[in-house]
Design a protein that fits this description.
- By secondary structure, the protein is an alpha+beta fold.
- The chain has 13 helices and 22 strands.
- The chain has a 5-stranded mixed beta sheet with strand order 1-2-3-5-4.
Protein backbone atom coordinates (compact mmCIF):
# COMPACT_ATOMS: atom_id res chain seq x y z
CA UNK A 1 0.00 0.00 0.00
CA UNK A 2 1.63 3.23 -1.11
CA UNK A 3 1.55 6.31 1.08
CA UNK A 4 2.04 9.84 -0.26
CA UNK A 5 4.09 12.12 1.97
CA UNK A 6 4.78 15.79 1.49
CA UNK A 7 8.15 16.75 0.11
CA UNK A 8 8.80 18.70 3.31
CA UNK A 9 8.90 15.39 5.19
CA UNK A 10 11.85 14.50 3.01
CA UNK A 11 13.88 17.17 4.78
CA UNK A 12 12.90 15.75 8.16
CA UNK A 13 13.68 12.15 7.30
CA UNK A 14 15.69 11.94 4.11
CA UNK A 15 17.08 15.42 3.85
CA UNK A 16 19.38 15.56 6.83
CA UNK A 17 23.10 15.32 6.26
CA UNK A 18 23.68 11.67 5.48
CA UNK A 19 25.49 9.87 8.28
CA UNK A 20 25.74 6.11 8.49
CA UNK A 21 23.04 6.11 11.20
CA UNK A 22 20.70 8.24 9.08
CA UNK A 23 21.32 6.01 6.06
CA UNK A 24 20.54 2.88 8.07
CA UNK A 25 17.37 4.44 9.45
CA UNK A 26 16.25 5.28 5.92
CA UNK A 27 17.11 1.82 4.59
CA UNK A 28 15.27 0.09 7.42
CA UNK A 29 12.17 2.19 6.84
CA UNK A 30 12.30 1.42 3.12
CA UNK A 31 12.65 -2.32 3.73
CA UNK A 32 9.78 -2.31 6.23
CA UNK A 33 7.59 -0.29 3.86
CA UNK A 34 8.27 -2.67 0.96
CA UNK A 35 7.42 -5.60 3.24
CA UNK A 36 4.16 -3.90 4.29
CA UNK A 37 5.27 -3.53 7.89
CA UNK A 38 5.20 0.28 8.29
CA UNK A 39 4.52 3.49 6.39
CA UNK A 40 7.21 4.86 4.11
CA UNK A 41 8.77 8.12 5.29
CA UNK A 42 11.31 9.03 2.60
CA UNK A 43 11.11 11.01 -0.61
CA UNK A 44 8.93 9.47 -3.29
CA UNK A 45 11.03 10.15 -6.35
CA UNK A 46 13.66 7.46 -6.72
CA UNK A 47 14.99 4.46 -4.80
CA UNK A 48 18.57 4.44 -6.12
CA UNK A 49 19.79 5.75 -2.78
CA UNK A 50 18.48 2.69 -0.97
CA UNK A 51 19.76 0.28 -3.59
CA UNK A 52 23.30 1.63 -3.42
CA UNK A 53 23.39 2.24 0.34
CA UNK A 54 22.37 -1.36 1.00
CA UNK A 55 25.45 -2.51 -0.93
CA UNK A 56 27.62 -0.23 1.21
CA UNK A 57 25.96 -1.01 4.57
CA UNK A 58 24.91 -4.64 4.06
CA UNK A 59 26.85 -5.93 7.07
CA UNK A 60 25.10 -3.39 9.31
CA UNK A 61 21.67 -4.91 8.60
CA UNK A 62 20.23 -7.68 10.73
CA UNK A 63 19.68 -11.12 9.23
CA UNK A 64 15.94 -10.46 9.16
CA UNK A 65 16.47 -7.16 7.34
CA UNK A 66 18.79 -8.85 4.85
CA UNK A 67 16.18 -11.56 4.25
CA UNK A 68 13.40 -9.01 3.74
CA UNK A 69 15.59 -7.04 1.34
CA UNK A 70 16.31 -10.09 -0.79
CA UNK A 71 12.74 -11.37 -0.69
CA UNK A 72 10.66 -8.19 -0.92
CA UNK A 73 12.90 -5.73 -2.75
CA UNK A 74 15.65 -7.24 -4.87
CA UNK A 75 13.91 -10.46 -5.88
CA UNK A 76 10.44 -9.01 -6.35
CA UNK A 77 10.48 -9.82 -10.06
CA UNK A 78 8.01 -12.68 -10.55
CA UNK A 79 5.40 -11.40 -13.00
CA UNK A 80 2.79 -13.28 -15.02
CA UNK A 81 3.04 -11.21 -18.21
CA UNK A 82 5.83 -9.85 -20.37
CA UNK A 83 6.24 -7.95 -23.62
CA UNK A 84 9.22 -6.85 -25.69
CA UNK A 85 8.81 -3.27 -26.91
CA UNK A 86 8.73 -2.61 -30.70
CA UNK A 87 12.37 -1.45 -30.69
CA UNK A 88 13.48 -4.66 -29.02
CA UNK A 89 15.36 -2.73 -26.33
CA UNK A 90 13.06 -3.34 -23.34
CA UNK A 91 11.20 -6.30 -21.90
CA UNK A 92 8.24 -5.15 -19.77
CA UNK A 93 7.04 -7.45 -16.95
CA UNK A 94 3.68 -6.92 -15.24
CA UNK A 95 0.74 -8.55 -13.46
CA UNK A 96 -2.96 -8.32 -14.29
CA UNK A 97 -4.00 -9.06 -10.71
CA UNK A 98 -2.61 -8.87 -7.19
CA UNK A 99 -0.50 -6.21 -5.48
CA UNK A 100 1.50 -5.39 -8.60
CA UNK A 101 -1.49 -5.18 -10.97
CA UNK A 102 -1.27 -2.44 -13.59
CA UNK A 103 -4.38 -0.48 -14.74
CA UNK A 104 -6.48 -2.91 -16.76
CA UNK A 105 -8.18 -0.62 -19.29
CA UNK A 106 -7.79 -2.07 -22.81
CA UNK A 107 -9.49 0.32 -25.22
CA UNK A 108 -7.52 -1.08 -28.15
CA UNK A 109 -8.83 -4.58 -27.44
CA UNK A 110 -5.49 -6.21 -28.16
CA UNK A 111 -5.44 -8.10 -24.89
CA UNK A 112 -2.70 -5.91 -23.44
CA UNK A 113 -3.50 -3.15 -20.92
CA UNK A 114 -3.30 0.31 -22.49
CA UNK A 115 -0.91 1.26 -19.67
CA UNK A 116 1.60 -1.32 -20.97
CA UNK A 117 1.04 -0.32 -24.61
CA UNK A 118 1.82 3.26 -23.62
CA UNK A 119 4.84 2.17 -21.57
CA UNK A 120 6.29 0.38 -24.61
CA UNK A 121 6.06 3.55 -26.70
CA UNK A 122 7.42 5.72 -23.87
CA UNK A 123 10.45 3.55 -23.13
CA UNK A 124 11.31 3.28 -26.82
CA UNK A 125 11.20 7.06 -27.12
CA UNK A 126 13.41 7.41 -24.05
CA UNK A 127 15.94 4.99 -25.57
CA UNK A 128 15.94 6.85 -28.88
CA UNK A 129 16.68 10.20 -27.24
CA UNK A 130 19.14 9.11 -24.53
CA UNK A 131 21.10 6.57 -26.59
CA UNK A 132 20.56 7.31 -30.29
CA UNK A 133 20.35 11.12 -30.14
CA UNK A 134 22.31 12.14 -27.04
CA UNK A 135 24.92 9.41 -27.46
CA UNK A 136 25.07 7.81 -24.01
CA UNK A 137 26.91 4.50 -23.91
CA UNK A 138 25.08 1.31 -22.97
CA UNK A 139 26.13 -0.69 -19.91
CA UNK A 140 28.24 -3.70 -20.79
CA UNK A 141 28.05 -7.27 -19.60
CA UNK A 142 30.84 -9.54 -18.30
CA UNK A 143 31.79 -10.27 -21.92
CA UNK A 144 32.41 -6.56 -22.50
CA UNK A 145 29.57 -6.30 -25.00
CA UNK A 146 26.78 -3.69 -24.68
CA UNK A 147 23.57 -4.87 -23.06
CA UNK A 148 20.86 -4.23 -25.62
CA UNK A 149 17.78 -5.59 -23.80
CA UNK A 150 16.75 -4.03 -20.48
CA UNK A 151 14.14 -5.44 -18.11
CA UNK A 152 11.42 -3.30 -16.53
CA UNK A 153 9.28 -4.70 -13.69
CA UNK A 154 6.05 -2.88 -12.80
CA UNK A 155 5.82 -3.04 -9.01
CA UNK A 156 3.74 -1.50 -6.24
CA UNK A 157 6.38 0.94 -4.95
CA UNK A 158 6.52 3.81 -2.45
CA UNK A 159 8.67 5.65 -5.04
CA UNK A 160 8.23 6.43 -8.73
CA UNK A 161 10.93 3.94 -9.67
CA UNK A 162 14.46 2.67 -9.08
CA UNK A 163 17.34 0.88 -10.76
CA UNK A 164 18.24 -2.42 -9.09
CA UNK A 165 21.93 -3.36 -9.42
CA UNK A 166 22.38 -7.10 -9.97
CA UNK A 167 26.18 -7.40 -10.18
CA UNK A 168 29.32 -5.40 -10.82
CA UNK A 169 31.64 -5.59 -13.77
CA UNK A 170 35.11 -4.04 -13.66
CA UNK A 171 36.54 -3.15 -17.07
CA UNK A 172 39.81 -1.25 -17.45
CA UNK A 173 39.57 -0.23 -13.81
CA UNK A 174 36.06 1.20 -14.20
CA UNK A 175 33.43 -0.19 -11.80
CA UNK A 176 30.13 -0.68 -13.59
CA UNK A 177 26.79 -2.15 -12.53
CA UNK A 178 24.44 -4.34 -14.53
CA UNK A 179 20.93 -3.37 -13.43
CA UNK A 180 17.24 -3.71 -14.15
CA UNK A 181 14.42 -1.27 -13.39
CA UNK A 182 11.44 -1.39 -11.06
CA UNK A 183 8.73 1.11 -11.97
CA UNK A 184 5.57 1.89 -10.04
CA UNK A 185 2.61 -0.11 -11.28
CA UNK A 186 -0.01 2.66 -11.52
CA UNK A 187 1.40 6.08 -10.45
CA UNK A 188 -1.83 6.84 -8.62
CA UNK A 189 -0.53 8.61 -5.54
CA UNK A 190 2.35 10.92 -6.39
CA UNK A 191 2.88 14.60 -7.16
CA UNK A 192 2.59 13.69 -10.86
CA UNK A 193 0.26 10.82 -11.72
CA UNK A 194 -0.73 8.54 -14.58
CA UNK A 195 1.11 8.46 -17.89
CA UNK A 196 2.86 11.76 -17.22
CA UNK A 197 4.49 10.20 -14.16
CA UNK A 198 5.36 7.12 -16.21
CA UNK A 199 7.07 9.32 -18.82
CA UNK A 200 9.33 11.21 -16.42
CA UNK A 201 10.11 8.00 -14.53
CA UNK A 202 11.15 6.16 -17.69
CA UNK A 203 13.46 9.06 -18.57
CA UNK A 204 14.84 9.28 -15.02
CA UNK A 205 15.39 5.61 -14.25
CA UNK A 206 16.75 4.59 -17.65
CA UNK A 207 19.27 7.39 -17.28
CA UNK A 208 20.32 5.80 -13.99
CA UNK A 209 20.79 2.50 -15.82
CA UNK A 210 23.12 4.28 -18.25
CA UNK A 211 24.97 6.13 -15.47
CA UNK A 212 25.68 2.86 -13.68
CA UNK A 213 27.49 1.74 -16.81
CA UNK A 214 30.19 4.41 -16.47
CA UNK A 215 32.39 4.53 -13.34
CA UNK A 216 30.39 4.33 -10.13
CA UNK A 217 31.32 5.92 -6.79
CA UNK A 218 28.84 6.27 -3.94
CA UNK A 219 29.89 9.81 -2.98
CA UNK A 220 28.80 11.13 -6.37
CA UNK A 221 25.15 10.12 -6.25
CA UNK A 222 24.11 13.75 -5.88
CA UNK A 223 25.09 14.11 -9.54
CA UNK A 224 23.23 10.96 -10.55
CA UNK A 225 19.98 12.50 -9.31
CA UNK A 226 20.77 15.92 -10.75
CA UNK A 227 21.34 14.57 -14.26
CA UNK A 228 18.49 12.05 -14.19
CA UNK A 229 16.07 14.81 -13.17
CA UNK A 230 17.49 17.01 -15.94
CA UNK A 231 16.83 14.17 -18.38
CA UNK A 232 13.14 14.21 -17.46
CA UNK A 233 12.98 17.88 -18.40
CA UNK A 234 15.05 17.26 -21.54
CA UNK A 235 12.69 14.63 -22.93
CA UNK A 236 9.38 15.84 -21.45
CA UNK A 237 9.70 19.61 -20.81
CA UNK A 238 5.94 20.02 -20.65
CA UNK A 239 5.47 17.88 -17.51
CA UNK A 240 7.63 19.70 -14.91
CA UNK A 241 7.50 17.07 -12.20
CA UNK A 242 10.67 18.63 -10.78
CA UNK A 243 8.70 21.72 -9.70
CA UNK A 244 7.82 19.85 -6.50
CA UNK A 245 11.43 20.21 -5.30
CA UNK A 246 11.87 23.93 -5.90
CA UNK A 247 10.66 25.11 -2.49
CA UNK A 248 13.27 23.00 -0.73
CA UNK A 249 16.07 23.93 -3.13
CA UNK A 250 15.50 27.68 -2.84
CA UNK A 251 14.91 27.54 0.92
CA UNK A 252 18.25 25.84 1.62
CA UNK A 253 20.39 27.00 -1.32
CA UNK A 254 22.25 29.85 0.41
CA UNK A 255 25.48 28.50 1.92
CA UNK A 256 24.69 24.85 1.16
CA UNK A 257 27.38 22.83 -0.57
CA UNK A 258 26.79 22.02 -4.23
CA UNK A 259 27.25 18.27 -3.71
CA UNK A 260 24.81 18.03 -0.79
CA UNK A 261 23.11 14.67 -1.28
CA UNK A 262 19.57 14.68 0.03
CA UNK A 263 16.86 13.39 -2.26
CA UNK A 264 14.65 16.43 -2.67
CA UNK A 265 17.57 18.87 -2.73
CA UNK A 266 19.50 16.85 -5.31
CA UNK A 267 16.45 16.60 -7.59
CA UNK A 268 15.93 20.35 -7.38
CA UNK A 269 19.62 20.97 -8.00
CA UNK A 270 19.02 19.63 -11.51
CA UNK A 271 18.66 23.33 -12.31
CA UNK A 272 22.46 23.44 -12.53
CA UNK A 273 22.44 20.82 -15.30
CA UNK A 274 19.56 22.62 -17.02
CA UNK A 275 21.74 25.74 -16.98
CA UNK A 276 24.72 23.87 -18.46
CA UNK A 277 22.51 22.49 -21.24
CA UNK A 278 21.09 25.92 -21.98
CA UNK A 279 24.52 27.59 -22.15
CA UNK A 280 26.64 24.88 -23.78
CA UNK A 281 24.26 22.27 -25.19
CA UNK A 282 23.37 18.78 -23.97
CA UNK A 283 26.68 17.19 -24.99
CA UNK A 284 28.45 18.72 -21.99
CA UNK A 285 26.49 16.47 -19.61
CA UNK A 286 27.54 13.31 -21.45
CA UNK A 287 31.10 14.65 -21.62
CA UNK A 288 31.13 14.88 -17.82
CA UNK A 289 30.05 11.24 -17.51
CA UNK A 290 32.66 10.18 -20.03
CA UNK A 291 35.32 12.08 -18.08
CA UNK A 292 34.81 9.69 -15.15
CA UNK A 293 36.13 6.72 -17.11
CA UNK A 294 39.59 5.79 -15.97
CA UNK A 295 39.55 8.02 -12.89
CA UNK A 296 40.50 6.27 -9.61
CA UNK A 297 37.49 5.79 -7.37
CA UNK A 298 39.69 6.86 -4.44
CA UNK A 299 39.66 10.47 -5.66
CA UNK A 300 38.08 12.88 -3.18
CA UNK A 301 35.80 14.47 -5.77
CA UNK A 302 35.42 12.21 -8.80
CA UNK A 303 32.48 13.98 -10.46
CA UNK A 304 33.58 17.46 -9.46
CA UNK A 305 37.08 16.91 -10.81
CA UNK A 306 35.59 15.61 -14.04
CA UNK A 307 33.29 18.62 -14.17
CA UNK A 308 36.25 20.98 -13.69
CA UNK A 309 38.20 19.31 -16.48
CA UNK A 310 35.32 19.35 -18.95
CA UNK A 311 34.47 23.00 -18.31
CA UNK A 312 38.10 24.03 -18.78
CA UNK A 313 38.63 22.39 -22.15
CA UNK A 314 37.42 23.32 -25.63
CA UNK A 315 34.79 24.04 -26.74
CA UNK A 316 33.57 25.25 -23.32
CA UNK A 317 36.70 27.15 -22.22
CA UNK A 318 35.21 28.06 -18.85
CA UNK A 319 35.86 27.10 -15.23
CA UNK A 320 34.14 25.56 -12.24
CA UNK A 321 34.26 28.91 -10.43
CA UNK A 322 32.62 30.76 -13.33
CA UNK A 323 30.00 28.03 -13.57
CA UNK A 324 29.14 28.08 -9.85
CA UNK A 325 28.94 31.88 -9.88
CA UNK A 326 26.71 31.86 -12.96
CA UNK A 327 24.45 29.28 -11.34
CA UNK A 328 24.08 31.46 -8.25
CA UNK A 329 23.14 34.40 -10.45
CA UNK A 330 20.55 32.41 -12.41
CA UNK A 331 18.98 31.26 -9.14
CA UNK A 332 18.54 34.91 -8.09
CA UNK A 333 16.44 35.86 -11.10
CA UNK A 334 13.31 33.85 -10.35
CA UNK A 335 9.75 34.60 -9.26
CA UNK A 336 8.93 38.28 -9.74
CA UNK A 337 12.60 38.94 -10.53
CA UNK A 338 12.35 36.84 -13.69
CA UNK A 339 13.76 38.52 -16.79
CA UNK A 340 12.03 37.25 -19.97
CA UNK A 341 14.25 35.35 -22.41
CA UNK A 342 17.07 35.13 -19.86
CA UNK A 343 18.15 32.47 -17.39
CA UNK A 344 15.80 29.54 -16.62
CA UNK A 345 12.84 29.16 -19.00
CA UNK A 346 10.57 28.26 -16.05
CA UNK A 347 12.05 30.87 -13.69
CA UNK A 348 8.73 32.68 -13.19
CA UNK A 349 7.32 29.52 -11.55
CA UNK A 350 10.17 29.19 -9.04
CA UNK A 351 10.35 30.75 -5.57
CA UNK A 352 13.16 33.10 -4.66
CA UNK A 353 16.29 32.38 -2.66
CA UNK A 354 15.62 32.52 1.06
CA UNK A 355 18.06 34.82 2.84
CA UNK A 356 18.17 34.24 6.58
CA UNK A 357 17.56 37.12 8.97
CA UNK A 358 21.08 36.58 10.23
CA UNK A 359 22.35 37.34 6.71
CA UNK A 360 20.51 40.69 6.48
CA UNK A 361 22.59 43.71 7.50
CA UNK A 362 21.91 47.42 7.90
CA UNK A 363 24.48 49.43 5.98
CA UNK A 364 27.04 50.46 7.04
CA UNK A 365 26.94 49.84 10.80
CA UNK A 366 26.08 46.15 10.90
CA UNK A 367 28.34 44.80 8.15
CA UNK A 368 30.47 41.95 9.59
CA UNK A 369 34.22 41.89 9.09
CA UNK A 370 34.13 38.30 7.84
CA UNK A 371 31.71 35.51 6.95
CA UNK A 372 32.23 31.77 6.63
CA UNK A 373 31.26 30.39 3.23
CA UNK A 374 30.84 26.63 3.14
CA UNK A 375 32.61 24.61 0.50
CA UNK A 376 31.32 24.64 -3.10
CA UNK A 377 28.60 27.13 -2.30
CA UNK A 378 26.93 30.44 -3.00
CA UNK A 379 26.03 32.45 0.10
CA UNK A 380 23.66 35.39 -0.26
CA UNK A 381 23.61 38.35 2.13
CA UNK A 382 21.22 41.30 2.01
CA UNK A 383 22.45 44.86 2.55
CA UNK A 384 19.79 47.48 3.27
CA UNK A 385 20.07 51.22 3.65
CA UNK A 386 22.30 51.89 0.62
CA UNK A 387 20.31 54.51 -1.28
CA UNK A 388 22.29 57.72 -1.70
CA UNK A 389 25.48 56.23 -0.25
CA UNK A 390 28.88 55.67 -1.78
CA UNK A 391 29.93 52.04 -1.55
CA UNK A 392 33.34 50.39 -1.89
CA UNK A 393 33.42 46.63 -1.29
CA UNK A 394 36.35 44.22 -1.41
CA UNK A 395 36.07 40.52 -0.52
CA UNK A 396 39.22 38.59 0.39
CA UNK A 397 40.40 35.33 1.95
CA UNK A 398 43.43 34.76 4.15
CA UNK A 399 44.39 31.57 2.29
CA UNK A 400 44.24 30.71 -1.39
CA UNK A 401 40.64 30.29 -2.51
CA UNK A 402 38.64 30.14 -5.70
CA UNK A 403 35.94 32.67 -5.04
CA UNK A 404 34.58 36.15 -5.36
CA UNK A 405 31.33 38.10 -5.36
CA UNK A 406 28.66 39.86 -7.39
CA UNK A 407 26.01 42.41 -6.43
CA UNK A 408 22.45 41.56 -7.42
CA UNK A 409 19.38 43.77 -7.60
CA UNK A 410 15.88 42.92 -8.78
CA UNK A 411 16.79 43.39 -12.45
CA UNK A 412 20.57 43.61 -12.71
CA UNK A 413 23.80 41.88 -11.75
CA UNK A 414 27.24 43.41 -11.58
CA UNK A 415 30.19 41.66 -13.22
CA UNK A 416 31.87 39.00 -11.10
CA UNK A 417 34.70 40.26 -8.89
CA UNK A 418 37.41 37.78 -7.90
CA UNK A 419 38.76 37.73 -4.37
CA UNK A 420 40.87 40.84 -3.80
CA UNK A 421 39.08 42.88 -6.47
CA UNK A 422 36.89 45.83 -5.53
CA UNK A 423 33.43 47.09 -6.43
CA UNK A 424 32.88 50.84 -6.20
CA UNK A 425 29.77 52.91 -6.80
CA UNK A 426 28.74 56.42 -5.80
CA UNK A 427 25.27 57.62 -4.88
CA UNK A 428 23.67 54.18 -4.86
CA UNK A 429 20.21 54.14 -6.44
CA UNK A 430 19.08 50.85 -4.91
CA UNK A 431 18.27 50.82 -1.21
CA UNK A 432 18.67 47.06 -0.97
CA UNK A 433 21.13 44.81 -2.80
CA UNK A 434 22.07 41.16 -2.51
CA UNK A 435 25.74 40.25 -2.31
CA UNK A 436 26.40 36.81 -3.83
CA UNK A 437 29.52 35.32 -2.23
CA UNK A 438 31.03 32.35 -4.08
CA UNK A 439 33.40 29.71 -2.70
CA UNK A 440 34.39 27.15 -5.35
CA UNK A 441 36.95 25.39 -3.14
CA UNK A 442 36.50 21.95 -1.57
CA UNK A 443 36.81 23.49 1.91
CA UNK A 444 34.87 26.14 3.81
CA UNK A 445 36.57 29.52 3.89
CA UNK A 446 36.33 32.73 5.91
CA UNK A 447 35.83 35.65 3.52
CA UNK A 448 36.81 39.08 4.76
CA UNK A 449 34.47 41.96 3.91
CA UNK A 450 36.26 45.28 3.57
CA UNK A 451 33.74 48.09 3.21
CA UNK A 452 34.42 51.77 3.06
CA UNK A 453 31.52 54.12 2.55
CA UNK A 454 30.25 57.63 2.67
CA UNK A 455 26.69 57.35 3.87
CA UNK A 456 24.07 60.00 3.17
CA UNK A 457 22.83 62.14 6.05
CA UNK A 458 19.38 62.52 4.49
CA UNK A 459 16.36 60.86 6.12
CA UNK A 460 15.77 57.63 4.19
CA UNK A 461 13.92 54.37 4.67
CA UNK A 462 14.07 50.92 3.18
CA UNK A 463 13.56 48.47 1.79
CA UNK A 464 11.06 49.94 -0.61
CA UNK A 465 9.03 48.08 -1.62
CA UNK A 466 8.94 45.76 1.38
CA UNK A 467 8.67 42.24 -0.05
CA UNK A 468 7.29 40.16 2.80
CA UNK A 469 7.34 37.01 0.67
CA UNK A 470 11.12 37.40 0.44
CA UNK A 471 11.48 37.31 4.21
CA UNK A 472 11.51 41.08 4.74
CA UNK A 473 9.70 41.68 8.03
CA UNK A 474 10.65 45.24 8.98
CA UNK A 475 11.34 48.74 7.69
CA UNK A 476 14.43 50.71 8.64
CA UNK A 477 14.26 54.51 8.95
CA UNK A 478 17.70 56.17 8.95
CA UNK A 479 19.14 59.51 10.06
CA UNK A 480 16.17 60.35 12.27
CA UNK A 481 16.71 63.32 14.64
CA UNK A 482 16.92 62.34 18.28
CA UNK A 483 13.62 64.09 19.08
CA UNK A 484 11.99 62.81 15.88
CA UNK A 485 8.73 60.88 15.88
CA UNK A 486 7.67 58.67 12.95
CA UNK A 487 3.99 58.44 12.04
CA UNK A 488 2.85 55.82 9.52
CA UNK A 489 -0.47 56.12 7.66
CA UNK A 490 -2.29 53.85 5.27
CA UNK A 491 -3.55 54.99 1.86
CA UNK A 492 -6.80 56.17 3.45
CA UNK A 493 -4.86 58.55 5.71
CA UNK A 494 -5.47 56.57 8.91
CA UNK A 495 -2.58 56.32 11.33
CA UNK A 496 -1.52 52.71 11.78
CA UNK A 497 1.73 53.06 13.76
CA UNK A 498 3.77 55.57 15.74
CA UNK A 499 7.49 55.21 16.53
CA UNK A 500 8.63 57.27 19.49
CA UNK A 501 11.74 59.43 19.76
CA UNK A 502 15.04 57.67 20.49
CA UNK A 503 18.73 58.42 20.87
CA UNK A 504 19.45 56.12 17.94
CA UNK A 505 19.37 57.69 14.45
CA UNK A 506 18.01 54.39 13.09
CA UNK A 507 14.45 53.27 13.88
CA UNK A 508 12.79 49.99 12.92
CA UNK A 509 9.10 49.35 12.27
CA UNK A 510 8.01 45.70 12.43
CA UNK A 511 5.08 46.07 9.97
CA UNK A 512 2.55 45.84 12.80
CA UNK A 513 -0.21 48.26 13.73
CA UNK A 514 -0.88 49.69 17.19
CA UNK A 515 -2.63 46.44 18.18
CA UNK A 516 0.35 44.29 17.25
CA UNK A 517 -1.35 42.93 14.13
CA UNK A 518 0.44 42.62 10.76
CA UNK A 519 -0.61 45.35 8.36
CA UNK A 520 -1.97 44.58 4.91
CA UNK A 521 -0.32 44.99 1.55
CA UNK A 522 -0.60 48.45 0.07
CA UNK A 523 0.84 51.94 -0.12
CA UNK A 524 1.85 53.63 3.13
CA UNK A 525 2.86 57.21 3.93
CA UNK A 526 5.33 58.11 6.64
CA UNK A 527 5.91 61.44 8.40
CA UNK A 528 9.08 62.16 10.37
CA UNK A 529 8.44 65.11 12.70
CA UNK A 530 10.94 66.83 14.99
CA UNK A 531 11.29 70.29 16.49
CA UNK A 532 13.28 71.51 13.51
CA UNK A 533 12.00 69.59 10.49
CA UNK A 534 9.34 67.48 8.87
CA UNK A 535 9.99 64.85 6.23
CA UNK A 536 7.40 62.85 4.27
CA UNK A 537 7.67 59.82 2.03
CA UNK A 538 5.77 56.77 0.89
CA UNK A 539 6.51 53.09 0.44
CA UNK A 540 4.79 49.87 -0.54
CA UNK A 541 4.31 46.59 1.28
CA UNK A 542 3.92 43.52 -0.93
CA UNK A 543 2.81 40.19 0.54
Amino acid sequence: MKAHFSVLLTLIFGGQLYTADADLTAIRNYIAARAGMEAYQGDTKCGIRYQMDVIRLWDELSQQEQHLWLADVKQDTARSEKLITPSGHFMLHWDNQGDNMVPQTDVSGNGIPDFIDSAAVIFDRVWDIEVSQLGYALPVGPDGLPIDLHHVYFTDLPVYGEPVPERTVTIDGNVKYISYMQIDNDFSDFFTTGLEALKVTAAHEFHHILQLGYNVRQNDFFFYEMTSTWMEEKIYPEINDYFQYMDILFFYMSNTEFDYYAGAYSYGNALYVIMLDQIYGADIVRNIWESLLGRPLSMNALVLDGLRDVLARAPYNSSWLASLQEYGKWLHFTGDRTIPQMYFPDAAYFPKIRIARSDTYIFPDQIPESLNITELANRYIRLIGLRGSDLNLTVSASTFSEGGFSLLSNQEATPFYHLGESFASSNMIEDTVIVQLVNAQYYARDFGLDISSTATTDITMGPNPVRVMDGEREVLFRNIPEDGHIYIYNAAGLEVAHIEESASPNRIWNLQNRNGEPVASGIYIYLVKSAEQEHRGKFAIIK
